[in-house]
Write a structure and sequence with these properties.
Structural class: mainly beta
Shape: elongated
Strand order of the largest sheet: 1-5-6
Number of domains: 1
Radius of gyration: 15 Å
Number of helices: 1
Largest sheet: 3 strands, antiparallel
Helix content: under 10%
Distance between the termini: 36 Å
């Protein structure tokens, strides 16, 4: 199998409250709340330290910090 690498530029921000589309609330045995965004892949729950990635077409995705650090590098002129 031949391997290919795609290089794309995206906007990314470390998650902060207020960036979510909503907050899920569980009232089961252990009650909790969890922020989420709705992506083309469905509901994506956000954990502390996650990044919110916005593609050129406006689609948003959640990215864990370990995947983000190994998959993305700062573009010259960008702020980190």
């Amino acid at each position: 199998m031949t391997k290919y690498k795609q290089t794309i530029v995206v906007e990314a921000e470390l998650y902060q409250p207020g960036m979510e589309d909503g907050i899920a609330v569980s009232m089961g045995v252990q009650s909790f709340t969890r922020p989420y965004i709705v992506s083309p892949d469905g509901t994506m729950y956000i954990s502390p330290g996650d990044w919110i990635i916005t593609m050129a077409n406006g689609e948003r995705y959640v990215c864990s910090p370990d995947v983000f650090e190994t998959s993305y590098e700062l573009v010259e002129g960008g702020a980190k």
